[in-house]
Amino acid sequence: MRRMTSLLFPPRPSGRFGVVLLLLRVVAGAAFMFHGWPKIQNPLGWMGDISSMPSPLQALAALSEFGGGLAWLLVMNSCLPARDRSSSRESVKLSQEGLMGRRESR
User: What is the Cα–Cα distance from 13 to 37, expressed in whole angstroms?
Assistant: First the structure.
């Protein structure tokens, strides 16, 4: 059980490694957004008339590219405050114990 918890909630990177990962996330998210922005402007026809790709799939591709970059940037903002995850680990542990306890009582 401890191994599963450590896989689900790894420790946050700190120091230079954490800063490098933060910068990488910002650059990659911005690149996805900049690359997807022209596609969002014309989501149903950004591939042109000669494409055999259906329009709904073109719209999904444009949305996933732009939205994926936006999601990376939003996740980056939520990770900026250095919060201790021990409270979330404890709540997961308590909920797992509660579920295990219910199973045993049956």
Answer: 31
Integer Cα distance of 20 and 32 in angstroms: 18
Place of tokens 């910002």: 26
For 65-103, write each residue's pLDDT tens digit: 999 999 888 876 555 544 444 555 555 555 555 555 554
Chain-centre distance for alpha carbon 78:
11
Q: Report d(CA 93, CA 106) in Å as an integer.
A: 20
pTM, two decimals, is: 0.59
Please report how the helices 15-41 and 55-79 are oriented relative to each other, as an axis angle in degrees rounded to 10. 150
What does the DSSP assignment read for 44-99?
A: TTTT-TT--S-HHHHHHHHHHHHHHHHHHHHHHHHHSS---THHHHHHHHHHHHHH
Cα dihedral 96, 100, 105, 106, rounded to 10, equals 110
